[in-house]
Amino acid sequence: MRNILFALIVRPIVFVVLGLNIRNYERLQQSGPLVLIANHNSHLDTIVLMSLFKGKSFRHVRPVAAGDYFLKNKLLSWFSTKVMNIIPIERKMTKDFKGMFQPILDELDNDGIIILYPEGSRGEPEKLSKYKSGIYYLMRERPEIPIQPIFMHGLGKALPKDSFILVPFFVDIFIGEPFKFTADRKLFMEDVTNRLNVLRDEGNFKEW
């Protein structure tokens, strides 16, 4: 059902209504294990990223999401687990990073393609927030797995935070080259920041 829903409804809406302009699509790794990181401005972000994959690749795509938000009622929980196939995690302070990330690690060990937002929650439209170090502690457990950065522009205007009205808007997607984990936390976080900043700067977008 999930494959059919995306093929017949979600992808046509994403590619026609939003008018995606994908840069360097050939860079996108189509098989797992893979951790895909992106900026986060809209509820549409995950649907757009999932729509980049098809067939066997799509079946392995699973976004990481906050369990306390996406499982808070029956309808949202059904959509999140049955359609989006999220990996729910708890948003709370803990020193047991491996335990918190275990469901993600299990999926990666099964050739999963994981969607993760280093910013955490959604930020202001078309503005990057400071990246949280959760991505570092996750990749520390699987340092050999590639990380692929993607920058999206326009979704923060098409469906911004706290809005429920979709505004047709051209969306630009910039796909970067995969890279690997670096043991030094400061250097790794700088690498994550720089790679997403470079993709953002490729668009040479003016501030809105």
TrEMBL record:
InterPro entries given in the database record: Plipid/glycerol_acylTrfase
Domain Phospholipid/glycerol acyltransferase: 34-155
Top-rank lineage group of the source organism: Bacteria
GO molecular function, one term: 1-acylglycerol-3-phosphate O-acyltransferase activity
Keywords: Acyltransferase, Transferase
GO BP annotations listed: phosphatidic acid biosynthetic process
One family name in Pfam for this protein: Acyltransferase
Full protein name: 1-acyl-sn-glycerol-3-phosphate acyltransferase
Organism listed in the record: Macrococcus epidermidis
